[in-house]
Write a structure and sequence with these properties.
Elements: E1 3-6, E2 12-16, E3 21-27, E4 37-38, E5 44-45, E6 53-56, E7 62-67, E8 70-75, E9 81-86
Antiparallel strand pairs: 1-2, 2-3, 3-4, 3-5, 6-7, 7-8, 8-9
Length: about 100
């Protein structure tokens, strides 16, 4: 896993691996064993490489994903993404315009 973003109800999370695969993992309330977790959703290949960070929007309709020098918005219903901005600011937040 490379990045994780939990839903507001704390019963699911979007996870991304080092190859840019995105998956929604769900679990039952007070999960305590493997049977309480749902691994059945297929992963979605984002095709933008490794993610650096991921944040779920407040209404949980989009994931904001940092991938290399790109900012990507992924619709959580369709799991399709749109590259919003190609940046070159690296770790310097002062360079964000």
């Amino acid at each position: 896993m490379c990045s994780v973003s939990f839903t507001m109800d704390n019963q699911s999370a979007y996870i991304c691996d080092t190859k840019g695969n995105l998956k929604l993992l769900k679990w039952k309330e007070n999960a305590s064993c493997e049977d309480h977790f749902d691994y059945t959703q297929e992963d979605t290949r984002l095709n933008w490489g490794q993610t650096n960070a991921m944040c779920l929007s407040q209404n949980e309709e989009e994931l904001l994903i940092s991938s290399g020098s790109d900012l990507i918005v992924v619709n959580t219903k369709t799991l399709s993404g749109t590259k919003v901005k190609k940046t070159r600011f690296g770790s310097d937040i002062k360079a964000i315009k």
